[in-house]
Fold these 4 entries.
Entry 1:
Amino acid sequence: MAGLDYIWATGRRKTASAQVRIRPGTGKVTVNGKPFEVYFPISTMRGYILQPLQVSGNMDKFDMIVSVRGGGPIGQAGATRHGLARSLLKTDASYREVLKQSGLLTRDPREKERKKPGQPEARRRFQFSKR
């Protein structure tokens, strides 16, 4: 795995961060040293991650090695998708318009809201008692 023949980018979602490295190949995907189907067992999640490849028409043209950490499965899937879209953009700038129209280059800004003091959760309040 030489570093020069890979094109890489970082994707983020919630508290997850993914380093995505792609190179021309047959569509093999490895996530944290495990096969893609083992790390992300839900098929809809795999489809969500591979959306940038489908939109740009590169379904079986790139091999992908992903290093993802932090967050949960959904956040990691979103981070991987974001990183894949950004690395595809580095391979060919003509993909920019189709990726941007699909909303794949925008980092999802939604984060977990912090818990406030004197409350059980971020927005939930203790039950009000007038007497």
Entry 2:
Amino acid sequence: MGHKRRRPKHLSRKLLKIREALGLTQADLTDQLGVGIRVSEISKYENDQREPSLQVLLAYARLANIPLEQIVDDKVDLRI
């Protein structure tokens, strides 16, 4: 029936780069994203142990003021 969605290879690296570019700790980022996630989840995203939901990815994009495509598309470089 459905197709399994391919996981972006560079997602974890891009999420870490966004947080570092914004100068935020993982705890600060959870507050800034405003989507009710815990610091442990940020760590899992950045260490490629878990993939964030679309809601979380949209929050990252809005916080960094970049198009969501830059985060999720491996063919597009992150410009932050």
Entry 3:
Amino acid sequence: MTERSTVEILRAARERIADPERWCQGYYAQDPNGAEVEPDDVQACKWCAVGSLCLEVQSRDEAHLYLVDAAREVGITPTAINDGRGHSAVMVLFDRAMQLAEASS
């Protein structure tokens, strides 16, 4: 099995929530009824930025750190961007995290 790069991990997490219908705020993940579930729950159909990334990695690894670094550039956390600034800001956050990861490789 080939190990994925940090950029590939970030890209997969971003793609999962690229459709606003598959993205949520306030919870790591939601089921079809809007109830909170764990990101890896079989009923999960919507994820926040961090919840989506949790499906790709099992710990706060390098990919998560790039997401945090990208958020710090605007002085807040990934969760604050997700829950306070909306879907398009989350997409920009992932794009910036991928840029930072690519620049350091």
Entry 4:
Amino acid sequence: MDIIARKISFVQEFLSISDEDLIDKLEKILRSERKKRTVKEFVPMELSYFYEMIEKAEQDIINGKVTEAGELLNSIEQWK
């Protein structure tokens, strides 16, 4: 059985559950596993790269490569 068929089967079985405690447990498992996966995928940046980004940002400010917050908000409004 492929992953899509397994998902459909799981959802169908889940929809037939009437026990609220079981639904609560399944929700907790899902949240817990999603949180573990997010933490596992997180990779901290190197300190040297962090300092490099700060230096670039400071150079952008010196060179006028910045956008005022108000200008940015006006631009965003025009996207709509």
